[in-house]
């Protein structure tokens, strides 16, 4: 499924932050941002990384909640605490594009607005595209960008473990 830039990349960054180890170093969090084409241009400070990890914990219920009304409520709470305010930017030689926080705002504020808005876009387009792995004990969250929208697992490895365990239990 094709999402706009906020619904796709921003929601995928939100998922990556949720999936990060809660004790990740600032360098690890910075690499997650860079891997999702978010450019802080510097390694995050320890307090910034810690705040993003706390933010990630607040993002998790959007992926794991089964009830749409609760997901919408959580996203609205997230949006309410961000500095979310539409802003057209042309930084780094890029074409004009939409930001939801001023480009000179602190990086943590920009990331909060970016991820909350990305999740809001996905919720409004197709809330079933946000999920958590169905393998018991996994806990990894994802944005389902598959064509048919029937993703149940974070990766083929988890799917295979579940299917092999089911097969073995039937043939035991």
TrEMBL record:
<dbReference type="Pfam" id="PF11706">
    <property type="entry name" value="zf-CGNR"/>
</dbReference>
<dbReference type="InterPro" id="IPR023286">
    <property type="entry name" value="ABATE_dom_sf"/>
</dbReference>
<feature type="domain" description="Zinc finger CGNR">
    <location>
        <begin position="129"/>
        <end position="171"/>
    </location>
</feature>
<protein>
    <submittedName>
        <fullName>CGNR zinc finger domain-containing protein</fullName>
    </submittedName>
</protein>
<dbReference type="InterPro" id="IPR021005">
    <property type="entry name" value="Znf_CGNR"/>
</dbReference>
<dbReference type="InterPro" id="IPR010852">
    <property type="entry name" value="ABATE"/>
</dbReference>
